[in-house]
Design a protein that fits this description.
Length: 298
């Protein structure tokens, strides 16, 4: 599945905070839109793998915590959660809003799954490599009455990476695994003319690290334009950066943030992604660095 935290630079604002655009997951199959109150307490259900149960037949009996793989016709098939798998069902939400308005329905599905998946995994999507999508309309016979939210990991190339035998919520609640799943880039977010590519893990050399996602508006709000989004994002990300670094500001660590295109905004992406940036590559996370020498991270 294509689409990840690939960052395309659009403006440069000097050496301080600057603006980039973070591309959300694409709307390719099996989801009809990009990527939280679970229908239960969120406990994981490990189904009996039945590779012959696919598409609508599988979706009728779906449960939160169930594990899925792609089938060969744009749908899903059951997978054993103790084995490698591609998706986990993070939430099944009764919702019949805007069934005849495809654009608005997609926005509702998308914003619902962003929230529900973040509750399921215990962390923020886009800041980490975990993503959310709504199960495709073609696969779900009850798609006009409910929203099925799936979570899946992305690799550095922006493809679905598949999962290990650990369930997503347990993986992200493990601080060491969460660190490895954080999004880091090989370029600073404000280097004009450069395009930041995600690196395999933040333990690899990188110059930008995603630290937080902050709200710039509400789903359904009118798109305010790039300049207004930058104005809203700058103080929020400045505060987030100081907190992330351990309550300090440093000349050798600078801030950056994402903005949204109108197309992304209309799909419900009404947040900014905040970054910390370094002139030279570092390894590991800068969370809580305080006044430690940056050379210790190279």
């Amino acid at each position: 599945m294509a689409g990840a935290a690939v960052v395309a630079l659009v403006t440069a604002c000097g050496s301080g905070t600057a603006s980039v655009v973070v591309a959300p997951p694409s709307s390719s199959a099996p989801s009809s839109s990009p990527a939280s109150t679970p229908s239960s307490s969120g406990a994981t259900t490990t189904p009996t793998p039945e590779s012959t149960v696919r598409g609508p037949g599988l979706m009728r009996g779906l449960k939160v915590g169930q594990c899925l793989d792609d089938d060969q016709v744009g749908g899903f098939q059951a997978s054993d959660c103790t084995m490698g798998h591609t998706y986990e069902v993070a939430a099944i939400v009764p919702n019949a809003k805007q069934p005849s308005d495809l654009k608005e329905r997609n926005r509702v599905r998308n914003t619902t799954c962003i929230t529900q998946v973040e509750k399921y995994i215990g962390g923020q999507t886009e800041v980490t490599s975990r993503r959310s999508i709504a199960a495709s309309v073609s696969s779900d016979p009850e798609a006009d009455q409910r929203i099925v939210c799936l979570t899946f990991p992305m690799n550095a190339a922006g493809d679905s990476a598949g999962m290990t035998a650990k369930v997503a919520k347990d993986v992200l609640r493990d601080p060491k695994r969460l660190l490895r799943g954080r999004v880091c880039l090989d370029k600073r977010t404000f280097d004009k003319g450069q395009t930041g590519e995600t690196v395999p893990t933040c333990e690899d050399p990188h110059r930008a690290e995603a630290i937080a996602k902050v709200p710039l508006g509400k789903p359904g709000d009118r798109y305010p334009g790039i300049k207004e989004l930058e104005k809203r994002a700058r103080p929020l990300c400045t505060t987030a950066m100081k907190s992330y670094l351990g309550g300090v500001t440093r000349k050798d660590i600078e801030g950056g943030f994402s903005t949204r295109t109108q197309a992304q905004w209309d799909l419900g992406y009404v947040t900014a992604i905040c970054f910390v940036n370094t002139a030279e590559p570092v390894r590991g996370s800068l969370e809580g660095i305080g006044n430690k020498p940056l050379a210790d991270y190279r």
